[in-house]
Design a protein that fits this description.
mainly beta, Jelly Rolls, 2 domains, 344 residues, single chain, 7-stranded antiparallel sheet, 23 strands
């Protein structure tokens, strides 16, 4: 069987290396021990069933599928964490935008969960994708279930996404037929819309963190809305590089009178908060910075006071990304008559 091994894309960056091709009929097994995306010689599809046999090495490693992919930087990713079997994040799903990971944004039922897949031995599996749902079944058992695929359904390529370790595939095949999986997936989560949530944000062009020391002169040309868990998936805005790792997020906060409100803040990975041009706060939420198991998951864990003037106030936050998910979220509490809008 011929497998098409196309561009290998580094999992922590977006640099391309030379294409790698398997020799026709030379191997019964597809052995992957490089980081990135390995395209499979299967039909492009929007819905369907991909069947396979899989062997995964022990130790810290990640194995999954990038599907509905127009290219290696975009699509949907569902993967297993070899070393976390039995834990609440043994599998994870997130949409892929511009080559980013997004596990720090997408958490909870339908996005991560417990499973126990045999490591170091061959198992049989199926990836079934239908509409806005997907399941991964191993040896007849559903081990990962997604009830709300984030990206709009579209036909695309399918490939293996890998990081660290080794994985082997054999007997890969595809069928456009899909079973009804509605009863096997969790319902979509209710939209997180607490009182005071900043639902819409304006965004600047990306710059280097080294120059993002002040919002002076920054202009705002893009806008995104809060989504899963009240967070904005800023991965949609741009690929990540050392020259483009910081974006200013901003809203105009209007108050009928001078007053103090509280801002519950969520971000990843670093944030510097400015109100009317003055720096109020800087924080970091980078992977592994708090303890050896800290994933850098974004949440509304920081609270700071905002002393508003009567009229319009400019809230501007420099958000720097390292890896795992570029995001911002805010909830305003305690004020009377306070509103927010996109920057003019």
């Amino acid at each position: 069987m011929l497998y098409r091994l196309a561009c290998i894309i580094c999992a922590s960056c977006i640099a391309l290396t030379a294409p790698a091709l398997a020799e026709t009929g030379a191997h019964e097994e597809l052995i992957i021990n490089e980081n990135g995306i390995t395209w499979l010689d299967l039909p492009d599809h929007k819905n369907g069933t991909t069947s396979f046999e899989l062997w995964m090495s022990p130790g810290r490693a990640f194995t999954g599928f990038l599907f509905r992919a127009p290219d290696a930087q975009n699509g949907e990713i569902l993967y297993l964490r070899h070393h976390q079997q039995g834990n609440p994040d043994a599998w994870q799903y997130h949409p892929r935008y511009n080559g980013h990971q997004a596990y720090q944004i997408y958490q909870g039922e339908g996005f991560a969960g417990v499973t126990n897949v045999a490591i170091g031995e061959w198992v049989s599996g199926e990836l079934i994708v239908s509409g806005d749902q997907a399941i991964l079944r191993i040896d007849g058992e559903v081990v990962a279930a997604v009830g709300d695929l984030i990206r709009d359904p579209a036909s695309g390529q399918i490939g293996v996404w890998s990081l660290r370790g080794e994985r082997r595939f054999r007997n890969l095949s595809f069928s456009p037929e899909v079973e009804d999986i509605c009863a096997l997936v969790p319902p979509p989560q209710d939209r997180f819309m607490p009182k005071g949530l900043i639902a819409d944000w304006s965004f600047s062009a990306p710059v280097s963190a080294e120059v993002a020391v002040s919002p002076d002169g920054v202009t705002y040309e893009n806008a995104l809305s809060a989504g899963h868990r009240g967070l904005v998936d800023m991965n949609q805005l741009t690929p990540l590089s050392s020259e483009a790792n910081t974006i200013f997020a901003s809203v105009t906060v209007t108050s009928p009178e001078p007053q103090m409100v509280l801002l519950d803040l969520a971000f990843s990975d670093k944030a510097s908060v400015f109100l009317n041009g003055e720096l109020l706060y800087s924080g970091t939420d980078v992977f592994l910075t708090r303890d050896y198991r800290f994933l850098g998951t974004a949440g509304f864990n920081d609270t700071l006071p905002l002393y508003l003037n009567a009229g319009d106030n400019q809230l501007e936050i420099a958000v720097t990304e390292q890896e795992g998910g570029w995001t911002i979220g805010g909830i305003l509490r305690g004020g009377e008559g306070v509103t927010t809008r996109l920057r003019d």
